Amino acid sequence: MSTAGPALLAALAASIALIIFLCGRFKLHPFLAIVLSTYAFGMMAMGIGAATGADERFVDNLGTTIAEGFGTILASIGLVILFGTIIGKVLERTGAAVTLAEAVLKVVGKRHPALAMSLIGWVVSIPVFCDSGYVVLSPLQRSIARKTGKNPVVLGTALATGLYASHTFVPPTPGPIAAAGNVGIGSDGLIWVILFSIPVSLVAALAGLAWALRRTGNLESKLPDAHQTFEEYKAQFDRLPSLSRALTPILLPIVLMAVGSVAAFPSGDGTLVDGAFGSLLKDLGNPVNALLIGVLLALALLPSKLDAKALTTWVAEGLVDAAPILVITGAGGAFGAVIKGTPIADYIATLIGDGSAVSGVTALLVLFALAALLKTAQGSSTAALIITSTLAQPLLPALGLDGNLGSIPIGQVMAVMAIGAGAMVVSHVNDSYFWVVSQFSGMDVKTAYRAQTAATLVQGLSALVVVLVMGALLL
Hints:
By secondary structure, this protein is mainly α.
């Protein structure tokens, strides 16, 4: 092991570098980049095992290990990702996202337009992808800019960072769901990811808002005056759903998951709620079941005159949006399975020794840095979340991030939060969201770097501070 350990660590570093190189230099899809790097690491590991005379072959049957790792992670998280994506697509297409935006605007008031845009973005991006959310809400941002005389760059940056914060942290957004599954958080633990992600993501959103207000007021937008107003955009929908109907597909699944987790709390020789009623609450709180209920409630938003063909098209669009995330998640699961097939985690544990060097809070910094490196190099926050969580899972015990706080898998939850913070740093020209924000806000590339890119750096670092404080108190 002493001979194989350094070589395995070098092989893992090389495989991560290969992912970054293939995505960055050749613009290869992350799915193929991860698969190729997985095979590269597996073959290097087998060669290292043979060269060092290991008692057992590292990664026995590489193809089978990869296939099993791919299937196992999708079996645990695939339907959750699909259901969450479909909910978001229906909310977008029915105008429910517009209803949510108007509700936040009424609460905050038009005297604080930047704060309103930030909070609107944060709320809407919990179920809706941030790219889609920005497109949907950009007419509102432009309309408010004209009504209030506020700089469109300020409002655009506030909206973009609000969307980005919940997109990176808060389930049922697929990226955080996939990361939670990758680090081994079961269905009964997903609610803790949601509860911890809310304060972390709100701090990130407010940090982005502060940057927008203080650092972008002198930047110029090239938006023409002829853009569609929010009122004109609203007119595309025959009838917007009420606020209660728009919120229910999001809130009810979260409530069901929370109630199911409470019911499953250990109590005496059983759980807090036993018997048939307890079993019912736990079943309803399973994320797959809870989000399926959310899908059905979202479908209830559909106008009565909508034909089946339109509904099928919307669902198909949701499935198309989910497909890249599913395959990247599966590829990440395969990579993790190959890593688990080697003794690299044991070697890292020997390097850490008594845990004084890289453990707990320090380990959170390591996960943050790795996610930030992957995000900056290849552009996708979702891919950074998935890849980093895949690499982290077999190493969590060695990093001191496998502990529980009562029934809360606190080490794994903190790992997801640290990875999410890193996956925000930074959005620039290799990120599709950068171009959505810049084009719909009338920013040139230089302006977008000073506004959007710099803001995402501030957001990631602010979120990291919160995560490290939580880690110091709870780990």
